[in-house]
Design goal:
Strand content: 25-35%
Mean pLDDT: 89
Largest sheet: 9 strands, mixed
CATH class: Alpha Beta
Radius of gyration: 18 Å
Number of strands: 16
Oligomer: single chain
Number of domains: 1
Structural class: alpha/beta
CATH topology: Metallo-beta-lactamase, Chain A
Helix content: 25-40%
CATH architecture: 4-Layer Sandwich
Distance between the termini: 25 Å
CATH superfamily: Ribonuclease Z/Hydroxyacylglutathione hydrolase-like
Order of helices and strands: HEEEEHEHHEHEEEEEHEHEHEHEEH
Shape: globular
Low-confidence stretches: 1-20, 272-282
Strand order of the largest sheet: 1-16-15-2-3-4-5-6-7
Number of helices: 10
């Protein structure tokens, strides 16, 4: 029975690969199930790790410990909404962090003030996001700085990150809405293997131009119980028309994508029904 359950948990996409520990030709992109919020761990086979957002509360620490993360080379706060930075002070206060970066915009909230106080008491290297490419072991993370003159909408001041590992690419854009997504396209966005749905699957985080520019092979939606209607049914139509592989943390739990240099990939989730869902989506 246990073997059957494990077989349902693991879906192999691209070349068939057995379940195994991370290998030297792979990178992990892990979308933690933190409820309504974002927290994404990128980890190279050398053990170098980057955390992009930290969810709404301190539960993120438990998620990191489950994956044996005891230090971070890079932490990115895409923008200062609670569902992205609520757990950030806990991470910074308990885990050695080599470098932290954000969009540089202050925000009037308790969570942002708590984060600022935490940063002010630490010696972690801090910087405002700019166009640069950072190394994470054998992978690179291209930082996409927020669009200038954003109209003051924090969503459109999100920091983007393009993870590149050989032919495997993953694009993470916080809560960017269509205006900022268009700006990212103007910076030169390639077709990607993996796309995190912007703004938790909201309709204002996707359009035809965005999907034509990115052409993802799989989409992950980080979302929980909410009163905003995320993910939007019309947004889901955009994703379904562009890719057959869609995962949601509110349904699938934590989603772990393992990417390989040759561009193939596989997915593991916490949901025992994954095999059925994925087979139906093929």
């Amino acid at each position: 029975m246990l073997r059957k359950i494990m077989a349902l948990i693991v879906l192999v996409l691209g070349l068939a690969r057995p379940l195994r520990a991370q290998q030297a030709d792979s990178i992990e992109v892990i979308f933690f199930n933190v409820g309504q919020g974002d927290a994404v761990l990128v980890r190279s086979f050398e053990g170098r790790a980057a955390l992009i957002d930290a969810g709404p509360d301190s539960d993120i620490l438990d998620r990191l410990r489950e994956y044996h993360v005891d230090s971070l080379d890079l932490v990115i706060a895409t923008h200062p909404h609670r569902d992205h930075i609520g757990g950030m002070p806990t991470v910074l206060g308990t885990t050695p962090v080599a470098r932290y970066l954000d969009n540089g915009h202050p925000f009037d909230s308790y969570q942002w003030r708590r984060l600022k106080w935490t940063l002010d008491t630490m010696e972690t290297r801090r910087s405002v996001a700019k166009a640069e490419t950072l190394s994470l072991g054998g992978a690179q993370i291209r930082i996409l700085p927020p669009m200038p003159n954003s109209d003051g909408n924090p969503n459109n001041e999100s920091v983007g990150a393009l993870v590149q590992f050989g032919a495997f690419t993953a694009l993470l854009t916080g809560d960017s809405e269509r205006q900022e997504l268009g700006y990212f396209v103007s910076l030169g966005i390639p077709n990607v293997t993996l796309l995190k749905a912007a703004h938790h699957g909201a309709l204002n985080g996707v359009n035809l131009g965005w999907m034509q520019a990115t052409r993802p092979k799989l989409v992950v939606i980080s979302v929980g119980i909410n009163s905003y209607g995320h993910p939007d049914s019309l947004a889901l139509r955009f994703y379904r028309n562009s890719t057959r592989a869609i995962y949601r943390t509110d349904i699938d739990g934590t989603v772990r994508v393992i990417g390989y240099k040759d561009g193939t990939w596989r997915v593991e989730t916490a949901a025992a029904e994954l095999g059925t869902r994925a087979a139906a989506a093929r």
